[in-house]
Amino acid sequence: MLRLLLDECLSPTLVARAQARGVDATHVRFLGKAGYQDYNLIDIILAGEYCFVTNNARDFLKLFAEVEWHDGLVIILPQTRLAEQIVLFEAALDFVGGLDHTINRVVEVHSATDIRLSNLPPDELR
What we know:
23% strand, globular, DUF5615 domain-containing protein, DUF5615
C-alpha cells in the first residue's frame, strides 16, 4: 500500500487530499520533524517505507541516488502557491495511482499534464 510523506516545503493541507483518496499520508510537520535537515529525513523516509513528496529536487535526488532501495520520490517541480500545489499534487496522485509500484522510481511533476517517470538509481546501475 502506498504511504506518502510530504516535505515541509509543501502545504500540510495536501495530506487530507491524499487521505480522501484512501492513501496513507502524513506530513513532516505532523511527525514533529519540521526543521530537520534533508540528510536527517532520509532515514525516517526509508524506515517508514514512505514515498516522499517534495519540491526540493536538487537535494533529494542526490540523497535518493545514494540508497539502493527506496519507496519512491515524487517531485513537484514548480514552487507555487497552494491552489496550484493542489492541482499538481492531485495530478501526481492520479499518475502514481496508475503505477504498479513506486519502488526506486522518481515521478517528476512539471505541470498537471507533464509528468515524467524514471528509475533511481537507474536500471544500469543496479
